Structure formats: structure tokens, C-alpha cells
Amino acid sequence: MVFKNLHRFSGIIVSVFVVAHLFNHTMAWFGIATHQQILEFLRIVYQQPVVEIILIGCFLFQAYSGVILIVQLRNKEEKSSYEKLQIYSGVVLGLFIIQHISATIGQRIYYQFDTNFYFASRVVLQYPINLFFVPYYFLGILSFALHIANVHRLKIMKAVGQKQAQTHFTIILSLFILVAILILFVFMGGKYAIVIPNQYQVY
Ligand code: HEM
Ligand code: HEM
Asked: Quick one: a GO cellular component term (predicted)?
């Protein structure tokens, strides 16, 4: 119960970041300069050393506490469909979080480059690495959406009934899928031509 409460509390903190983060990427629709402006504005908050340590700590805690929650549920004989979806989406989300955070922060430190639009765009634009990174980013957003929409459905079910809760689930999921498609479309060069600077061709 302690882990579940902490997972929920830390989950709210990381969700605020994820929504702002995806909004930032969505705004690339209006151009790379707009994306960069919003990125720099958001960084004023989340790249403050103390804030960043807390944020990354919360993400790592989500993965750690998520595994504990799965272990606790493992011994339960009849798992509900809610619990099963939390486990499956949680596993994918956990793998995405670990890879994504190590890649962004690791490459920022190792190559000392700005992890901006070009950093993310290159891996979904260039063949053959895009074969991995397009589904990877899509699954990262999808697993987050499923995890959040599923909790939301459960929490409002008693108050609004099963049918309306299901409608909320479908709307949240569809919105995030649209966001994922829009981001990938723009970052893959569908809206305007993208020329990746040479410094990003590191692998
Ligand atoms: C962005 C990261 C994540 C967020 C925002 C998040 C959020 C949440 C929230 C709000 C709940 C509901 C807690 C409650 O019932 O009060 C939950 C449940 C759960 N989460 Fe996550 N979570 C994240 C990552 C993960 C990961 C990485 C895993 C697995 C490795 C995971 C596994 C689970 C499981 C198994 C439950 C169901 C627990 C139960 O009902 O007994 N979560 N999550
Ligand atoms: C298509 C989707 C996504 C793209 C293109 C993307 C891209 C990026 C980029 C470029 C950065 C570096 C930001 C900076 O230097 O300020 C970053 C950082 C990060 N991303 Fe994502 N991301 C995506 C989805 C997600 C999702 C779904 C999550 C969480 C569930 C996430 C979590 C993070 C975290 C925790 C950081 C590190 C923030 C920091 O610098 O402290 N991202 N991402």
C-alpha cells in the first residue's frame, strides 16, 4: 500500500512533466524555432539542478516501485483487467523510461551537444535507425497513455458509471495516439524539410 501511494504521488509529478514535454514536441508543427523557444522556456524550470534531480529521481522511482507493484500482484490468483493492463503498459513504459533517460542525459554529458529537436529528429528520420526509433517513441507515448487512461477509468467508474468511464478512457487514449502521430510526422520530415547538423551524426 505504501508503494502504491508513493507510486501515485510520484506519478502525478512525472505526468506534469510528460504533458509539458509532449506539448513542446507537438509545437514543432509550427517550426523548429518554435520548438526550441518552448524547450528553452521549459528547461528554465526542469533543468534547474535541484528540480532535475527530483524529476529524474521520480522517474526512476516509478520504474522501481512499478516492479515492486508487479511482484506484489504476481501472487494474486485472479487479476482484474485493470491490473493486467497496468502491468503490461507499465513494463513497456519502464523499459522506455530507462532507455530514454539514459540516452538523453548520457549523450548530453558524453557528446556535450544540445539534446534539442535535431537530436530526436535524426533517429526517426534516418534509415535504418528509424526502424527502431519510430515504434520506440510511439510505444513510449502509447504505454504512458494506456497507463494513465486506465487509472483514470478505474477512479471515476464509481462516480460516473462504466459506460462514461470507458468513453473517458477512449478519448484520452485517442488524444495521445493523435499526439504521437503528429509528433512523429513532423520529426520525420512530413511537415517541412529537416537538415540534421553534422555534429549529431555520432552513430
Ligand atoms: C510515467 C510513469 C508512470 C506513471 C505516471 C504511473 C502512474 C500510476 C498510477 C497513478 C497508478 C495508480 C495507483 C493507485 O492505484 O492509486 C499506477 C498503478 C500501477 N503502475 Fe504505474 N506509473 C508509471 C510507471 C510504471 C511502471 C514503469 C510500472 C512497471 C514497471 C508501473 C506499474 C504499475 C502497476 C503494476 C500498477 C497497479 C498497481 C495495483 O493496482 O496494485 N507503473 N501507476
Ligand atoms: C516522441 C516522443 C518523445 C520525444 C521526441 C522525446 C524527446 C526528448 C528530448 C529531445 C529530450 C531532451 C530534452 C532537453 O534537452 O531538454 C528528452 C528528455 C526527456 N524525456 Fe523525452 N521525448 C519523447 C517522449 C517522452 C516520454 C513519453 C517520456 C516519459 C514517459 C519522456 C521523458 C523524458 C525525460 C524524463 C527526459 C529528461 C529530461 C531532462 O533533461 O532532465 N519523453 N526527450
From this structure: membrane
